[in-house]
Design goal:
Elements: H1 13-22, E1 35-36, E2 47-48, H2 71-96, H3 108-128, H4 164-186
Parallel strand pairs: 1-2
Helix pairs in contact: 2-4
Pfam family, one: DDE_Tnp_4
Region (Disordered): 134-171
GO molecular function: hydrolase activity; metal ion binding; nuclease activity
């Protein structure tokens, strides 16, 4: 779990992400992996956002007759389901460290350090204590070639520089391919 503490709660998420990526020992996205982001972020390489203006929240799909009607809705449903798993992990963290259930009576700097300390302890417990396991649904990491994000990071050569517009276009094509693959698999 990567943690960047010290930002005020009112800071915009994209500003915090930019800071995390720009730091010397900042957030690194492993090769071939990506992070889910909410619709407050643009869809871009390594940060997969849902479709805007398309049903997203799990309750939007609840009940009979509310199944996804197209690729974009199915993609958003599955994105929301994964995001729900992530939110449950935050719940586990708050349950383990009950001091975070309300605002602690410490200086802001101390609170930021407390978050880092508890995150480090949480990571240690997850790694070293077998009794600390909580159920995680198995994932199918196989994917068709059309839903793989183009790799612009060849370790033998200099990285290819893309404009933000090119990067977003590639990421949107990638997201569309993932949605198409999901739709095909769901309807076969």
């Amino acid at each position: 779990m990567y943690v960047l503490s010290g930002w005020e709660g009112s800071a915009h998420d994209s500003k915090v992400l930019s800071d995390a990526l720009a730091r010397k020992n900042g957030l690194k996205v492993p090769q071939g992996k990506y992070y889910l982001v909410d619709c407050g972020f643009p869809n871009r390489r390594k940060f997969l956002a849902p479709y805007r203006g398309v049903r997203y929240h799990l309750q939007d799909f609840a009940g009979h007759g509310n199944d996804p009607e197209n690729e974009k809705e199915l993609f958003n449903l599955r994105h929301a389901s994964l995001r729900n798993v992530i939110e449950r992990i935050f719940g586990i963290f708050k349950s383990r460290f009950t001091i975070f259930k309300s605002a602690p009576p410490f200086l802001f700097k101390t609170q930021a350090e407390l978050v880092l300390t508890c995150a480090a302890l949480h990571n240690f417990l997850r790694k070293e204590c077998r009794s600390d396991e909580f159920p995680v649904e198995p994932t199918d990491e196989s994917s068709s070639s059309s839903s793989v994000l183009p790799n612009y990071e060849d370790n033998d050569h200099e990285p290819i520089v893309q404009t933000q517009e090119q990067e977003r276009e590639d990421a949107n094509i990638w997201r569309t391919n993932i949605g198409s693959d999901m739709w095909k698999n769901a309807n076969n």
